[in-house]
Fold:
Amino acid sequence: MRVCVIGAGYVGLTTGTVLAEFGHEVYCIDRDEAKINLLNRGAIPIYEPGLTEMVMRNKKQKKLYFTTNTIEAVNKCPIILIAVGTPPCTDGSPNLTYLENVIDEISKYISSHKTIIIKSTVPPGTNEWVDEALHKKGLKRNLYDIVSNPEFLREGSAVSDMLHPDKIVVGVKRPEVIKTMQLLYQNINAPFIFTTLNGAEMIKYASNAFLATKISFMNEIARICDAYNVDIKDVALGLSTDPRIGSLFLNSGLGFGGSCFPKDLQALEHAAKQKNIIPEILIAVQNVNTTQINLYIDKLLQEFPSLKNKKITVWGLSFKPNTDDTRYSKALSLIEHLKTSGADIHAYDPIVTLNSSPPICHKDIYESIENTDALIIATEWDQFSKVDWKKVSELMRGNIVIDGRNFIEPYLLKRNNLKYIGVARP
Ligand code: UGA
Structure:
């Protein structure tokens, strides 16, 4: 099938590339000419494991194209998949301008039937609005079908998530379009969940909100465990054996970041309030997430009543491992807190280097902790669990290591004269 993907961000690029891998002929469009030039030269603008090789392979096999030419791609392709960003506005609602612009533009070029698939995360009612907007622009309803097909890709494992999803959610207005969606995804072995346009939009928001709730719940339990000297890891293990709870997303720590959970919770809260519903749980989930960082700052202040001129090193800058994305990164919030304290802040991340200083970003992990008073691990990059703690201990001036992700074994530090500090890790 010929597919035109509009928006070559992490969702559009990954989805388009995997669809090409499945054998479809895919045209990825982005209005950012520099990005398209980069992709055409074989360089990938984001760090996503496995994506570069797959892009190169499919480009070479002439199944994947990158262009800024919307007219040509829309004309060629019966399937248009929209994956543009929906960043948050100041009131928490998502900014739908990019989507609106795309709808406006493609409406001018539609002369044969198009299946228009919206991948972007949008509030309930948006796909219905798109359907209505195209009609109001003079397009006959038999010229297009709108499909809401939210994505469930995690940054850092997006390629594998796209290849092996646990479900494919498809919201439709007319059942006739279901066949097209089944053909598009025929290489995927996962159940389809068919619903309405609003239903698919809600599944996406509810899914992210539920996962975020699990995290904030565990962070709240960690606060209580900390006060009672209970290891949160034991509690998580105890919970995980119950199939009604499940073992995933029970890791407590600095809280959730990234471009999805914080934005989607705000958007869902906003959507609820639009209908005069006060979403108490969603509000609490966000509050726990915002204040979680204070626990770690307090632990640091217990060690150093004043941080002035103390050298503090932060390991991990991205919002999670295996990505270069720093949007809503808890590491960056932590650094913002530290900046006001007069601390001398240093950082190391396997992929990310910040343009502005502080922090002073180091290219070498060991160099980053030379003469440091305290080390804070903000992201659970695999590399951090494999460091030589003896060397770390020798290089540091102080001995404080704060594990913001509960993923280092405390005994590894203790036997190297380092003081392990976590929340609810007695
Ligand atoms: C999330 C969802 O997991 C995807 O299903 C969804 O498609 C995506 O949002 C999206 O809406 O596009 P992502 O934000 O890439 O994916 O990353 P996650 O792995 O979900 O992690 C989000 C945050 O939660 C990270 O900051 C992570 O450190 C934190 N987290 C995760 C925890 O604090 N504890 C956990 O147990 C799990």
